[in-house]
Design goal:
With 141 residues, this protein is of the alpha/beta class. Helix content is 24%, strand content 28%. Strands 1-7-6-2-5-4-3 form a seven-stranded mixed sheet, covered by helices on one side. Helix 1 packs across helix 2.
Length: 141
């Protein structure tokens, strides 16, 4: 089944994040495919905020590769940014499978760079910029 959420402007991002979280159910590995500047980190920040993560704690892990946050219920949330990954071994070196197998929510930016390492159950989400500037979040399950 195909799902989509349109975000017309930033004031709607919290509502979109709540809807997204309710629709993905218990899926724990979420990969965001989008071009530079489409809003991957912005949407990830909104998701984390909805989960109760302190907003000032969320930042792009471009250099660290992974950031760990705590949701309001104390559960971990892992935020990956594989933009700077050049070899799959770099992702393995950070213990990627330990994170993915943890059952915790894993939010992945630039998954294209580690596609061969992603498990089959990964929820692949596309973020696209529409001609009017809105964002379309879409996925299939």
């Amino acid at each position: 089944m195909r799902h989509s959420i349109t975000i017309d402007n930033l004031s709607e991002i919290g509502k979109a994040a709540r809807l997204f979280l309710s629709e993905i159910g218990d899926r724990s590995i979420v990969a965001f495919y989008a071009p530079m500047g489409a809003g991957k980190t912005t949407f990830t920040t909104a998701l984390c905020k909805e989960l109760g993560v302190r907003e000032d704690a969320v930042s792009s892990p471009t250099f660290a590769i992974v950031n760990e946050y705590r949701a309001g219920d104390g559960s971990p949330v892992y935020h990956f940014d594989f933009y700077r990954i050049n070899k799959l071994a770099e992702a393995l070196d950070i213990g990627l499978y330990d994170y993915l197998d943890s059952g915790a929510l894993c939010l992945i930016e630039w998954p294209e760079n580690i596609e061969d390492l992603l498990p089959e159950e990964t929820l692949r989400v596309s973020i696209s910029v529409q001609p009017d500037g809105s964002r379309l979040i879409s996925w299939e399950d």
